[in-house]
Amino acid sequence: MEIKKFALIYLNFLVIGLLALSFQDILFIYNSESQVAKVHHFAKGPEQKFYKMGGSYIEKTLTPVIQYSSGGVQFSKELSYSCKDGCHKLGSSLTIFYNKENPSQVLVSSFEGFWKEKVYFLIIMAILLVTALPYLYYISKQPSSESNG
Fold first, then answer.
1. SS3 of residue 78 by DSSP
2. Which of 50, 72, 130, 131 has the fewest Cβ atoms within 10 Å of its own Cβ atom?
3. pTM, whole model, 2 decimals?
C-alpha cells in the first residue's frame, strides 16, 4: 500500500513541479506570435569555468544574437544564455515566440531557452524515484506490526 501512496504523491509533485516551471512560459506562448529567427552574430559572453580530465579552465563564451522582424521593423535580441562555441551556428534558424505589443520580449524555443530547467527537474525527480523505490520495496516486504497486537 505504501508504494501506491508514494506513486500518487510522486506523480502529484511531478505534475505540480512541471506546471510551476512552465506556467509563465505557457502564458507567454499563449499570448504571443511565433516565427523563425536567424542567428545573426555572436556577442561576447561572460567567462565561464569548464572542466575536463586535467582539471578546470576558464574560457570566454559567446552569446548568440538573433534577428527577426515584426510589423516591418527589424529587431535584434541577445539571448540570455551563452556557451563556449556559440551554442548555435551562424545563420541557423531558431523558433521564437515574441510579445505582440512589445516585440523585444522573446522566448526562444531551444534547450537553453525553454527546456533546460524542466529537464533538470525531471532528472532530480528521477534520482529521487530511484533512491526511494528500494526503501519502499523493503518496507512493503516487512511483516506488519498490526497483526502482532
1. strand
2. 72
3. 0.61
